[in-house]
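Q: We require from you a single protein entry containing the residue sequence and its fold in token form, and nothing else.
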Amino acid sequence: MDKEALIDANILLEIFLKDQKSEQCKSFLRSLKDKGIEPFITDFLIYACLLIIQSDVKDPKSLQNFLIFINDNDFRVIRPSLEICYHATEIMKETGLDFDDGLIVACMKKYGIKELVSFDKHFDKVKDIKRIVP
């Protein structure tokens, strides 16, 4: 793949909670391979999505479908080290982001990922990151 993009939880939750932009997000994620973009996600975001899906849907099959989706779409999973978590707290101080968003930025910086697929506009204030909206 030529490029990488980290996928924020809100994109995946749109799909699995069948929100308004569900089809738009599915189509966008399917198009990544055609564009030569490798999708990344953190294990923290996977766990967060699983907890939200469980809380909303209350069906183990939905959790299984989410995990199958991540696997079938060749997401590359980042497991943040303690060093990356610490860097996330520094990013929190610099940007005002909360920990989970700071962790996204810290992972992106560590792995040289420049693009973030997210609906969250507060990422726009982070230098060196380009936010992409599906």
Summary: The chain has a mean pLDDT of 93. The chain has one domain: 3-132.
